[in-house]
Specification:
- It comes from Microbacterium hatanonis.
- Pfam families: Abhydrolase_6 (PF12697).
- Keywords: Hydrolase.
- GO terms for molecular function: hydrolase activity.
- This is Alpha/beta hydrolase.
- This protein has 232 residues and is of the alpha/beta class.
- The chain has a single domain, classed as Rossmann fold, CATH 3.40.50.
- 36% of the residues lie in helices and 19% in strands.
- The protein contains eleven helices and nine strands.
- Helix 1 packs across helix 11 and helix 3 crosses helix 4.
- The longest helix is centred in the first third of the chain and has 13 residues.
- The termini are close together.
Amino acid sequence: MSEKPTLLLVHGAWHGAWAWDPVAGILEDRGWAVERIDLPTVHADDPVGLHLSDDADAVAAAIAAIDGPVVVVAHSYGGVPTTQAATGDTVQHIVYIAAFALDEGESLLGAVGGVAPSWWVVDGPLATAGTDDEPPVSIFFADVDADAAAAASARLKPQSVLAFQEPLTQVAWRTKPTTYIVTEQDAIFPVPAQEALAARAGSTVRRLDTSHSPFLSQPEAVADIIEEAARS
């Protein structure tokens, strides 16, 4: 590798750039340049009416702003705008973490069966995550330190439902090498579904015995896998 890539970290639904704090800190301490973004369908002043394409545009703009090669790391829903956006020449690898590595014409809602899961709370144009019976602490952060899990749950924000409905029109994993981290204790993303997406994308598969949020429960292990991909 002639030039060390910058690592661009893309969060999942309802989350924010804050979710990457532990992993980003580890990688920066190891000498990597790290960038993070807040997706507009969650973090715009008014996310109502924003689409997947708005998030993909934000990812594409973040890639374009980086001088040199880029490795994009995407969690969960973040895999959708990343797959749409990370097609440029500077992207050298994509790391999917329990992520929706979808194909052209597919949407996240379609990928989960066309009906919102029981733990989605859809209120008109916005959706939130977690119910009394299925709270965020149990569905996202089951193996995260209790205080950190509570703090993360409190930071989740509503997201535009249109982000989940718009289909992809281009597919980065067709032309980019990828690594897929399977989260083996995931309460909301069945392991066979993760494995199927990884296989279709031709990904190198790595496994972590974690919940849906290994960036909080095992950040060192996540950083190790990102480094491995970035050095490949």
